[in-house]
Amino acid sequence: MRPAKCKRMNEPSTRNPTLDDVAALASVSTATVSRYLNNPKVVAAATAERIREAIAQTGYIPNMLAGGLASSKSKMVSVLIPHLTDSIFNDTIQTMAEELASAGTTVMLGLTGVAPERTDEMILAAMGRRVDAIISTAPLGPQTRELVERFPGLFIQIWELPEDPPGIAVGFSHRDVGRDVARFLQTRGYRRPLLVTAEGTRARIRSDGFVEEWQALGGGDVAQAQVDIPSRFGHARRIFADMRRMAELPDVVVCGSDYLAQGLIVEAQAAGLRVPDQLAVMGFGNSALAGAMRPTITTVDIDGSRIAREAIAAIRHHATGAPPLARSIDVGFRLIERESA
Amino acid sequence: MRPAKCKRMNEPSTRNPTLDDVAALASVSTATVSRYLNNPKVVAAATAERIREAIAQTGYIPNMLAGGLASSKSKMVSVLIPHLTDSIFNDTIQTMAEELASAGTTVMLGLTGVAPERTDEMILAAMGRRVDAIISTAPLGPQTRELVERFPGLFIQIWELPEDPPGIAVGFSHRDVGRDVARFLQTRGYRRPLLVTAEGTRARIRSDGFVEEWQALGGGDVAQAQVDIPSRFGHARRIFADMRRMAELPDVVVCGSDYLAQGLIVEAQAAGLRVPDQLAVMGFGNSALAGAMRPTITTVDIDGSRIAREAIAAIRHHATGAPPLARSIDVGFRLIERESA
DNA sequence: GCTGGAATTGATAGCGCTTGCATTGTCCCG
DNA sequence: CGGGACAATGCAAGCGCTATCAATTCCAGC
Question: Given CB atoms, is A291 within the 8 Å cutoff of chain B?
Fold first, then answer.
């Protein structure tokens, strides 16, 4: 449907003002207005003033679809995460959205859910919108990977460090997290750990790292339990119930998220167990609640904001046309000793 | 920067395939391919098949910027919320993103934070991208409102029902929530409530409704405390500490969110108080943790998913060109009696 | 006063798609 | 067997902006 033409008389109230309207009002060419908008300092001060007035007078709002089409830069980035509730990625997204917004870029949210086929769809949607970058927490299957190779923007994998990432990666070593936790708990004198793992690749890798190190240090068998993704508060009830049916109660439960850890503490306390004396609990992610819980939760701090900032820096760098400075940016992690373990 | 031209020979590998490439390969006009893409049933079956093959062969990905420019429908909706962490809106956004994605529409995320001037920026950005709808949880100031009047798409205010919304509203009456909670707690025999309110308009309205009804029913004074926005788990520590310094301890604490309620329960228990016997706690939002906490949290259920679905239905309806069916859609709320109060 | 280079600006050809209108082909019915 | 209705497609004019290239203006330096 073409908007009404009104060639005969100028009735600008009908449709949105365009660059041409502004240009006409300021008696300059559209090119100059465009330049003013994108790079104000190249137009003369007096001209800039006239343009500014014309914009205010017309109430002009640039059409970024048109701009994007012409420049093939959309000023959008697509952020792909599995879900939103109780998500460990929230800090990252929050920072991402805020920092990008202040640079005039917006975030396209893609929820990949648990189904990997959704990831492909979302990537396609993002590519169709010609986003400048795709930032994804999802590990890529071979088919998705092929898709990504054709993506002209920057692909950034976050919250993990695959050894051969498509595009670049900003994250940390999950295996090392697992190892460090194992060492820490063994030093603290725990002997019968229970690993509660969500069925995702990353959590799996942490668990593997844990078991590897635990046994290398002479620890015995490591009990394991599974929870659905995402690992959340509500899962604790079942885990705890199952645990009580075990032949020998674990002395420490290693959780895949602080939410789950919190849940276990609540369950343990409700059952009359003292934490950490009778049951220690360890979390992951250092979300705000970990420091506020009673007892405070021993956990692993991941600087989600920093991940976002590094990703953004990479996008900016990429925009200059330069090749990436690094294929892989390790933001590390920090074990935070608190009361719960 | 114009992409390399390669007029001389056809080297399609250089640039993204376009509609023309597909059309050429399928020996039809671009118009037909476009029609196939947007409304498959208007093209003949045989033609459709050829086009399908051509698309597969070229690996064509439609440029939605171009499409949006031409049709002035971007297939994007902007969702404006204050923040992501511990957010009561997460269910709404989650549902929104999922349902919209399956209809080929994507969500532009806008975090308005606590600063209302950010809201204007985000709305401007959304309008610049010609989104089909703007869905906002933020109450609008007069200036923003003026902006919104000029928005050609559908503006939807969610999680509240102002009497004269710009566009349409999907939500419920916060005042009624306050009233119902007051009545409920008085019936349960509580006498000394403490209202913990986050400093936002909506929470304020709930509190006012509470006080109004509480006193109408012959209840006495209502103690109040303030927390920063967003009302979250970590705030509980301070609130509880302040509370203990009160001349007379409240017998029930009414919280602005389940997260805060959970925090208070944890604090109370850590201090040796039994919940709800010595201190009752009430939440708001019925997030997943409310049912999983020990004790389970009495709260007010808001169907966030339904809010999302109603909003989407309104968008679909709006897309047909028909005027809105209703300016205001009340999704109601439900008081959920559980153990904590 | 002249000249070369820098600073501004204008003209214009697209970017890749949608869509109103025109055209062609098909089929059914009188 | 002609003609109208309908289905399927093609043509081409934009959508509103950016960016290249050329034209113009402005000055400092000689």
Answer: yes
Q: Which residues pair with B195 in a beta bridge?
A: B224, B254
Q: How far is CA B124 from the centre of its chain?
A: 19
Q: What is the pLDDT of residues B299-327, one digit of tens each?
A: 999 999 999 999 999 999 999 888 889 99
Which residue reads 């670049």 in tokens? A168
The size of the A-B interface in CB pairs under 8 A is 154
From residue A166, give the alpha-carbon distance in Å to each of A32, A77, A172, A308. 39, 17, 16, 18
What is the Cα–Cα distance from B17 to B30, expressed in whole angstroms?
13
A 217-246 residues with CB below 8 A of B? 232-234, 236-237
Q: Tokens 């600008």 belong to which residue?
A: A12
- Identity at A252, one-letter amino acid code: V
Distances, alpha carbon B47 to alpha carbons B38, B54, B63, in Å: 14, 11, 22
For residue B270, the chain A residues in CB contact (below 8 A) are: 294
Contacts of A292 (CB under 8 A, 6+ apart): B233, B234, B236, B237, B263
Token reading at B120: 């204007």
Beta bridge partners of B136: B80, B157
Per the CB < 8 A criterion, the answer to whether A153 and A134 are in contact is yes
Within 8 A by CB and 6+ apart from A9, the residues are none
Contact at CB, B69 and A62, closer than 8 angstroms: no
At residue B96's C-alpha, the angle toward residues B86 and A128, to 5°, is 115
Q: What's the N-to-C CA distance of chain A in angstroms?
A: 65
Which domains are delineated in chain A?
A: 19-62 (no CATH), 75-171+304-331 (3.40.50.2300), 174-301 (3.40.50.2300)
Per-residue pLDDT of chain A (341 residues; tens, 9 = 90+): 334 333 333 444 457 899 999 999 999 999 999 999 999 999 999 999 999 999 999 999 999 999 999 999 999 999 999 988 878 899 999 999 999 999 999 999 999 986 778 899 999 999 999 999 999 998 888 888 998 999 999 999 999 999 999 999 999 999 999 999 999 999 999 999 999 998 888 999 999 999 999 999 999 999 999 998 888 899 999 999 999 999 999 999 999 999 999 999 999 999 999 999 999 999 999 999 999 999 999 999 999 999 999 999 999 999 988 888 999 999 999 999 999 99
Number of H helices, E strands in chain B: 13, 12
Listed in sequence order, the DSSP H helices in chain A are 19-26, 30-38, 45-58, 64-71, 90-101, 116-128, 142-149, 174-187, 201-216, 236-244, 258-270, 288-292, 304-319
Q: Looking at CA atoms only, how far is residue B208 from chain A in angstroms?
A: 29
Which residues touch A28 (CB under 8 Å, ≥6 apart)?
A47, A50, A51
Q: What's the token pair of residue B138?
A: 């933020």
CA distance A304 to A292: 18
Q: Are B93 and B111 in contact (CB under 8 A)?
A: no
* Intra-chain end-to-end CA distance of chain B, in Å: 65
Q: Residue A188 carries which side chain, given as an amino acid letter?
A: R
Q: Cβ distance B152 to B123 under 8 Å?
A: no
